[in-house]
Write a structure and sequence with these properties.
about 220 residues; alpha+beta; 4-stranded mixed β-sheet; 3 helices; 9 strands; about 35% helix; about 25% strand
Length: about 220
């Protein structure tokens, strides 16, 4: 998935830059400390400060910060590019302590839900190769939709809709969770995300039209 690739690139670069800056600053600090103690004689108060040197390293660190902020913002823009004008829409309703997935483009608009216990987990079915727009809201408290394998997470608020669009490039099934502590059974608030071929998705959607929901995929 595009989002997973972008996340991996951003994380790797930021980790390398952060590690490099940390090592350089630590080395300079250790060098300055050792040199200062070696040269300082008893009774000396130390040498005067060097404002130009301080301005230089502050400027370098500021440049690194500005680069990381600008580059991360650009990657975030790439991750959320405008999608197809007619994506597959799924309405996601979070509630204590489960999920409901509604498909407005089918008669399955009331949603797929279950008890979120044991094997009775709701399944979010999506097609591959098509933009999928998820519209997230909560019935009660703040939740967070998180699919660890895909490295994508978004908070879910009551009285508010968060929207993001994903395109799945291969079929598969992944476990999703709630990443925001939301009460007694927070740990059981899980679901399956299943990406299927466009043909299989169309057959599944057609089955929802014919049965009013509940057909397996």
């Amino acid at each position: 998935m595009k989002q997973r690739q972008i996340f991996g690139t951003v994380f790797a670069l930021e980790a390398v830059v952060a590690t490099g800056v940390f090592v350089v600053v630590l080395a300079l600090f250790g060098f300055a400390l050792i040199r200062r103690r070696a040269r300082q004689r008893p009774g000396e108060t130390g040498k005067p400060e060097r404002p130009r040197l301080e301005v230089f390293y502050v400027s370098v660190l500021t440049a690194f910060v500005a680069f990381l902020v600008a580059w991360t913002a650009w990657q975030n823009h790439r991750e959320n590019d405008a999608a197809d004008p007619a994506p597959v829409r799924v309405d996601v309703l979070a509630h204590q302590w489960c999920w409901t997935f509604g498909y407005p483009q089918t008669s399955h608009h009331r949603g797929v839900t279950s008890l979120c216990r044991g094997d009775q987990l709701p399944t979010l079915v999506v097609p591959t190769g098509r933009p999928v727009q998820l519209r997230l809201t909560s019935r009660d408290v703040i939740h967070s939709l998180w699919v660890p394998h895909l490295r994508y997470k978004m908070d879910v608020f009551p009285h508010h809709v968060n929207t993001f669009t994903l395109t799945f490039d291969h079929e598969g099934r992944w476990m999703g969770k709630c990443a925001e502590f939301c009460g007694q059974r927070h740990a059981t608030m899980r679901f399956w995300l299943k990406a299927v071929s466009p043909g299989e998705y169309d057959r599944w959607a057609g089955a929802q039209q014919g049965t009013g929901g509940g057909a397996a995929v």
